[in-house]
Specification:
The chain has four helices and three strands, in the order E-H-H-E-E-H-H. By secondary structure, it is an alpha+beta fold. The longest helix has 9 residues. Strands 1-2-3 form a three-stranded mixed beta sheet.
């Protein structure tokens, strides 16, 4: 849908709503297309829901804690390498 800048500014919320519904809005200035407004699709959580339903993942409602990862000091610290590189 082609819409002039003036028309777009006058009815901003209407055109944003149409873009959210999936319609492509093309803004024109002096009858030339200068921008396109497209809606952002809703976040798809079907993949996560499918993993939960299959039992491949579980969630107790809290924040994820991540993996138990321990870093081991091997070699020189980065700060020492930087100082050496600077000369």
């Amino acid at each position: 849908m082609l819409v002039s800048m003036q028309e777009f500014k006058s009815h901003l919320s209407q055109y944003v709503g149409q873009a959210q519904s999936g319609e492509l809005i093309e803004l024109t200035s002096h009858r030339k297309v200068v921008a396109r407004i497209v809606g952002v699709p809703p976040a798809d959580s079907a993949g996560v829901a499918r993993l939960l339903a299959a039992g491949a993942a579980s969630w107790q409602g809290g924040k994820p804690v991540g993996a138990a990862l321990e870093l081991q000091a091997v070699g020189k610290p980065v700060s020492a390498l930087v100082l050496e590189d600077r000369g």
